[in-house]
């Protein structure tokens, strides 16, 4: 059994921001399931939004966030997050050494993105997340109070309720991938910073680690989950058979890129006054609808009217990646399709990152703080991770340990190593495909009902398999993915309207009856196990 003050699960912007601040008053162990930098953070391109230009205002950033969130953001949370924003971004630079692009006058160069009424996105060329991850990881590695364990995957949370106590968490069982042993980590506070759920869908911009483990573990441990129906589909993922999950950043449209059909016709003017710069959900649905109408495989992003030298200078990584597939954006249109990108829902927390399970925190994409409502404003998520990581770290100081006197080690039972790995690949593929087809950009009651029936069957197979065989990373991810798919389906079934990222063709309009969060708890939602 390993003991620490604070156990952090995940090493993206949220987990690292928490860890670096919490290390000022305690020992921190970060368990992260693959290489430390492997995270959604590392792939973020566009940037981090904050009011950094004197001509911009906090009120405008707050209003843009509320407008895009379509009536169900928590205004108090929006306000505090956006007010904390400028300091959080400056801290990334001054304290951790993140190098954002500067303008000729030495001030931070600010980009504009969809839904923003001003230029307010700090960036490092088109690899902002990589730069943030680099800086934070370097700081964490140098901090004597932080132990960073790569290839350590959390399996489940340690629950005091299982020892006859109240709903409280005192650590986690963690699989060491090198030894295949499950170890017991006990902590005063446990922080879920496990990121998003993109891998629940067949097409996603997220890396493989984004299998929604945190939401699944939290739900099993009794934490309330909310708004899982609001999955953001990024409208522009590179469409090429060999390009796995490569995002074409919104910043390209911010700089003047225009969406077109194969025929060369523009179409966004038929969907929104902001045309190609409309909010993401509008653009994703417009592309989905045009592709269904025309039968084309993809749409195109045209940058060819812009200065070629500027394109290479401003978007070096996207340019290089496109060139590796023979697409020169200076002279050719970029083929794109929508793909699952961001989860607005997650584990419900208050404005300090606290869940309803005592001593369990959730920060970053895994959490539902109330910032995003029904749709996330571009570049607000890196901001949320860093603001709430810091806030949670301040709150855990002095937290009382809640743990049993004897902690039971992980019980592997009679399970033997599996020789039927095909069951995992088959179910994994089925879950992701059914979510794409039935619970994707456009939903209907019938599709959701089909999805519910299928996921229940798949989960019963996984359950049987889980208890019969020794756990592996793939099996754990599949089990989590299937549970979270079920939570998404259930949330989507309960919202009988269309709002923000949730579009149900049977109820195409907003209905004020549903101007609230969808909440699922153990006992009032799918079977947790
Ligand atoms: C391609 C792409 C581009 C994006 N661009 C932007 C952008 O420009 N601006 C913006 O604001 N947002 C952007 N986003 C969204 C943003 O990157 C994420 O929302 C944000 O980085 C999430 O940070 P996080 O710390 O919560 O999670 P992550 O950065 O995803 O980190 C999660 C961590 O948890 C670990 N983990 C997962 N499960 C377990 C487990 N069971 N045990 C242990 N560890 C686990 C992972 O390995 C990882 O280290 C983008 C996302 C993608 C995918």
Q: What is the CATH superfamily of the largest domain?
A: FAD/NAD(P)-binding domain
Which percent band covers the strand fraction?
15-25%
Radius of gyration, CA atoms, in whole angstroms: 22 Å
Q: Structural class from helices and strands?
A: alpha/beta
| Highest CATH level, the class of the largest domain | Alpha Beta
Helix content: 25-40%
For the record, give the distance between the C-alpha atoms at the N and C termini, rounded to a whole number. 25 Å
Largest sheet: 7 strands, mixed
Discrete helix count: 14
Q: Which hetero compounds are present in the coordinates?
A: flavin-adenine dinucleotide
Number of DSSP strands? 18
What is the architecture of the largest domain at the second tier of CATH? 3-Layer(bba) Sandwich
User: Mean pLDDT score, rounded?
Assistant: 95
Q: What general form does the structure show?
A: globular
> What number of domains?
3
CATH domain topology of the largest domain: FAD/NAD(P)-binding domain
Which stretches are poorly predicted, pLDDT < 50 over at least 5 residues? Answer: none
Describe the protein's architecture and organization:
The protein has helices spanning 13-22, 40-43, 58-68, 75-94, 128-142, 213-220, 251-254, 280-294, 308-314, 316-324, 380-396, 421-438, 445-468, 473-494; strands spanning 2-9, 28-31, 48-49, 110-111, 121-122, 146-149, 152-159, 169-176, 181-192, 225-226, 231-238, 258-260, 299-302, 334-343, 346-348, 360-362, 367-368, 519-520. It is 35% helix and 16% strand. α1 packs parallel to α11, α3 crosses α4 and α6 crosses α14. The radius of gyration is 22 Å and the shape is globular. The protein has 3 domains: 2-229 and 344-396, FAD/NAD(P)-binding domain (3-Layer(bba) Sandwich); 235-340, Succinate dehydrogenase/fumarate reductase flavoprotein, catalytic domain (Flavocytochrome C3, Chain A, domain 1), CATH 3.90.700.10; 421-519, Up-down Bundle (Methane Monooxygenase Hydroxylase, Chain G, domain 1), CATH 1.20.58.100. Strands 1, 2, 6, 7, 8, 9 and 16 form a 7-stranded mixed β-sheet that branches. A hairpin with a 4-residue loop joins β8 and β9 (181-192). With 529 residues, it is α/β, with parallel strands linked by helices. Bound molecules: flavin-adenine dinucleotide. Flavin-adenine dinucleotide is lined by residues 9-15, 31-34, 38-41, 43-48, 128-129, 153-154, 193-196, 205-206, 209-210, 213, 247, 342, 364-366, 379-382, 385.
